[in-house]
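Section 5: illustrative case.
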């Protein structure tokens, strides 16, 4: 089975106004939630779990950079986009785990 996930261009109708501090706070909350969910679910692997873990690591780096260089990190789409991507990857990971757990029932012959 081959899964297809189309990637669409990002657009916006108005510039975002997210301070570096607020962006770091959004990412910190996303890291906390994603990490907590990963700790609560079975440690089974899928192709998406490493991607979620990588997004968490990327957000931690982005938080550090935003705190060290706030003037360069304000009003960036990545403040919102990266947490959304990490969440999407987590949902895909959960879908894989659930699909493995659900077995079709056999009909009596």
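Designed sequence:
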């Amino acid at each position: 089975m081959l899964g297809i996930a189309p990637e669409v261009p990002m657009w916006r109708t108005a510039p975002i106004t997210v301070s570096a501090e607020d962006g770091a706070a959004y990412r910190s909350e996303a890291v906390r939630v994603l990490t907590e969910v990963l700790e609560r679910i079975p440690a089974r692997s899928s192709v998406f779990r490493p991607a979620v873990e990588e997004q968490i690591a990327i957000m931690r780096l982005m938080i550090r950079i935003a705190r060290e260089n706030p003037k360069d990190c304000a009003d960036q789409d990545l403040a919102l986009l990266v947490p959304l991507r990490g969440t999407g990857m987590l949902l895909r990971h959960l879908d894989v785990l659930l699909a493995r757990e659900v077995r079709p029932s056999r009909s009596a012959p």
